[in-house]
Amino acid sequence: MDQEALTTIMQEGRIAGAFLDVLDTEPFDLDCPLLTMDNVVVTPHMASNTEECMMRMATQAASQICKVLAGERPDWPVNRPAGK
Fold first, then answer.
1. What pTM, to 2 d.p., does this model score?
2. pLDDT of the residue at 84
3. Which domain holds residue 19?
4. Averaged over 58-68, what is the pLDDT?
């Protein structure tokens, strides 16, 4: 995200709103104009850090490891298979 560009288009009213969990500077600068806008919501970068989410991520990671070790293709590969 280009935070400066987002600030400009938000100030110009070119988009209705923004929901962010990352800013250019972490921890964010308290003088950031985005933080003063009524149509901008900023959450911590750990908004999904719930007990349920952590359990689901661990279970899904383990199931994908099992698939790969069994010679199967993972459900969400990051890289294309070689030769494709």
1. 0.54
2. 58
3. 3-42
4. 96
